[in-house]
Amino acid sequence: MNSPKIINFCRDYAVLILIVLLMIVLTLSSDAFLTPRNLLNILNQNAPLAIIACALTLVIIVGGFDLSTGAIFAVASVSSAWIAINYNPYVGLLIAPIIGIILGYLNGIIITSFKVHSFLSTIATSLVFRGLAILITGGFLIPVRMKEFTWLGREKIFEVHVAVYTLIVFAIISTFILTRTTIGRYIFAIGGNEDASILSGIKVNFIKIFAFSFCGLAAGIAAAIQVSRISLGTSQAGLGMELQAIAAVILGGTSIYGGSGAVWRSIAGVMLLALINNGFNILNADPFYKDLTTGLVIIAAVALTSGRK
Amino acid sequence: MNTNKEPELENNNSGSKTKITLKNITKSFSGITVLNNINLEFNSGEIHGLVGQNGAGKSTLGKIIGGHYKLSSGKIFLNDNLIKKWSSKIALDNGIAMIHQELALVPGMTVYDNIFLGIEENYYGILGKQNTKLFNDLDQKIGFNLDPNQKVSSLRIADQQKVEIIRALARNAKVIIMDEPTSSLTNDEVIKLHDLMHKLKKSGYLIIYVSHFLDAIIEVCDKISILRDGNLIRSSKIQNETKSSIVEAMLGTKEEIAFPNKKKGKIFDKKILELSNIKTSTGVKNVNLTINKGEIVGLLGLVGSGRTEILRSIFGIDQVQSGSIKYENEITNFKKVKDAIDKGIVMIPEDRRKLGLVFTQNTKSNISITNLKNVSKNQVIDSQKEIKLVKDLINLLDIKPTSTNGNIAFYSGGNQQKVLFAKWIFNSPKLILLDEPTRGIDVGAKRKIYELINNLSSKGVSILLVSSELEEVMGLADRAYLVKEGETINEIIPYQTSIDNVLFELFGAEKVSNE
Questions:
Q1: Is it the case that residue A309 has pLDDT exceeding 60?
Q2: Would A193 disulfide with which of B87, B106, B340, B422, CB 3.0-4.6 Å?
């Protein structure tokens, strides 16, 4: 391998290299780190964020941005809890992804019909959605203590949480859409050159609406897992989650200009953030340094991946 | 489900004739009429040329037929049926494909994926396997030899154009609109393209050929429509036209297409730039050349021969690995473009859309950006001074519209090119590296650019000129180097030799007539 190849390799696998380095450091410094229990826990705890990051990858590749995932997450959470209490816990869990799709679809419609940049319009819709969540709860918390409701977030099958299976299935579906379907091909094409895509006869608006709806769906599924796990609906759920998800996707090396990226990278991004967090916990390190360290790692990873087309 | 059928070039006479009729077509952009009451008919089995100066409306007309622009008024009939809704997608669905002058490809995707973009083989949305056979059949019929798995961003513009052409064929288009398809092809490739167009025509295709290369138009077209200032001057059979009758109709006045007079045998002895044995990672090697003060030096070579790369290495974009560059008697090796600019070297790039102009900014800002220091004090721009200097340049180069606040995105190609020139002249450079200065612009604008190049050199500015139009280099340069596979292989004095001789040497044994 000559030097440009090594540089390319670093760019493509920066996030994996950082994860491996971090895992080695953590393994050497604590016996508690490299245990299946700890690793599965990390995966389980971060499953909701990782699900959102998977779908957000599609939005960012298509050249968009979704800053409303946290707010969609909140609406889906509180609706889910409210329906579980007032109607049926299973319907409650099911309603979260449906609400997610509807709100994501709305995002897509607003972006394509008013031709506003998604960065702007999703800031606006995030306020609208968050406001909606507050209206639904009336400012109160909605506790749901039913086994029929909490299984999704808490139960295990063969020692592995249901949430982890959900994440795996969702990641596979996202990857499949992105790499094996015409929709995925068009997502790359639009992000790479929107004009060329229009001229190729691609229904650009439809594809964008699809990407945002899919992202909404992810936020809804994530919300169902989380609300079921903490058995509490709150309008403040998912605050700041949209930024964590974006950070994870960018950390994975998906281009913020669109046109390139992959789902597995975004999951790796989530895991890198999670490992830093976990490291602080098991090493009993001063938590005051946590944000600072996370920020520095993001800068390092972005520096390694910059120059990517 | 959506499966591709192989386009049959040979036996397509299955009686499916295509006729496109335009009735009273008018198009205006924000109040400016660019097409005025056009009536035209296109029939399958013909190659129909659209010619005119830049800004005459020929590209716009092509884009309207291709569904890229909406009409302001008028009617389009497809096989005598009035078309109610028209877009590029509907046009494609009806077998009308357009090859754009400003290429419309997705850079990050492979050649294969670009060709079949929008028409991928799929089963209920799930992509099928790459159909290598289909690609190879298409590619072989045209003889382009493209690698299906190469990324488009790594292809030269000429190869990207080939991708667009195959793309139209892959769509089973019956009507292909080509907007300046030859502007970056080599002569050899142009001949191949023309052969292909003939073949397509014989199999019943309709080809609408928008071009400013009159020789090419005369050679391949059956019919020709001449536009001037948005009006259709006339539409006639090619047999009834000659080159000068066409030019006359395009310009409105009779005018010779010629290069400015050159003082032959002028002696240049003040060396400004000397390259010896330059080698770069971009394929340039053994390049030796000198340029004197006030001299126009040309690089003659085929597309892909490394001409642009030589310019890039001088300008400090690509790093020189070995060999030396001597500029104004000092060994230099510019690490950054800014170093080169500070020393009075500028490069006017080939791809003005991507590399030259900022389309979100107006004329003034585009021109003055290279030397804001000149018109500002303590970082504050003196707008009176700026406007005055910019106005002088607009007058000097005859840029139209003459407004300093013009929106250059809507300028014609020729005027954009002039703005690009103005931008660099603003900086009063000593050496200009010129890459394809007249790509995609019309006769009138070309003439202006030639005069400008000549004027600059008479004022002592040195120019290194690269152009795919060999006549241009032959007509303008005082001296020229032949470039082949990244190397300078010979040095010639243009007026002492002929284009035929140059071509003979560049192509090796293959002798290509240019007339």
A1: no
A2: B106
